[in-house]
Inverse folding.
């Protein structure tokens, strides 16, 4: 069920190219100006590799984090609720309260609130929990908004239909890839913000545009990397829901295997850094 990695995952941005944007091409640490391959210099390669190693090790904690597990569980329940004729009642059972004029932003706001309340009641990493919470909201917004008639005032029926499309095997494959990619981007950014200043001087952002370019490259790269979990997420979701239903106990299987696959992808990328 999605265990093998078929070929390489294509990426428009190599990881070293993404890191180059925050090291300033090595931040004066021996890079060769004017060369198209400056991102391959030892300074940038070392930073890129160290970030991957730190993130790969850190993901082990993610597998066992209660807030992260609950966030993934809640994503499955939100999309399944959209299959119900009275989906507002279904959402209410999850603690999510919407009115008839709710938009996708109202939904993600409620998802954030419910996750936050869960995190307050259970022990877990605040950093991991916040990243997962943000990744979940962004994933729902990104995928559901295009299916709603409008972003503002789309109405309950349109919003339900938009979310319902994510409740299929294919829809949850897309949702899983978007969520795990978004989370991994935030995770890598977390370690980059600590490693880059130490290894390569201060981050090389001179303008807000530079920072925006880095963030876009980072999220694009991680979304492409998360292609490795795309099929698995849909297969696990569909098979588990059909056979026994998804609960907070068996969601561990989805979380654990998906994180293992993302760690494998980071290992492969580490080997590609040169």
């Amino acid at each position: 069920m999605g265990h093998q990695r078929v070929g390489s995952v294509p990426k428009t941005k190599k990881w070293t190219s993404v890191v180059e944007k925050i090291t300033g091409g090595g931040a004066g640490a021996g890079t060769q100006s004017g060369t198209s391959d400056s991102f391959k210099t030892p300074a940038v390669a070392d930073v890129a590799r160290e970030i991957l190693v730190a993130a790969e090790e850190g993901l082990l904690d993610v597998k066992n984090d209660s807030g992260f597990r609950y966030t993934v569980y809640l994503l499955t329940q939100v999309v399944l609720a959209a299959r119900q004729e009275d989906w507002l009642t279904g959402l209410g059972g999850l603690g999510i309260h919407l009115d008839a004029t709710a938009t996708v932003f109202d939904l993600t706001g409620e998802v954030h609130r419910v996750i936050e309340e869960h995190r307050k009641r259970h022990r877990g990493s605040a950093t991991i929990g916040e990243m997962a919470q943000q990744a979940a909201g962004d994933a729902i917004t990104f995928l559901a908004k295009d299916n709603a008639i409008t972003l503002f005032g789309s109405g309950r029926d349109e919003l339900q239909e938009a979310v319902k499309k994510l409740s299929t095997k294919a829809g949850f494959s897309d949702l899983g890839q978007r969520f795990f990619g978004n989370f991994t981007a935030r995770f890598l950014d977390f370690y980059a913000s600590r490693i880059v200043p130490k290894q390569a001087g201060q981050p090389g952002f001179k303008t807000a545009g530079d920072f925006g370019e880095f963030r876009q490259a980072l999220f694009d790269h991680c979304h492409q990397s998360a292609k490795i979990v795309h099929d698995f997420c849909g297969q696990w979701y569909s098979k588990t829901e059909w056979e026994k239903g998804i609960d907070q106990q068996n969601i561990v299987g989805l979380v654990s295997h998906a994180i293992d696959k993302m760690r494998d992808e980071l290992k492969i990328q580490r080997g590609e850094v040169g």
Q: What stands out?
A: Residues 15-26+37-272 form one domain. The chain has one domain: 15-26+37-272. The first helix runs from residue 15 to 23.
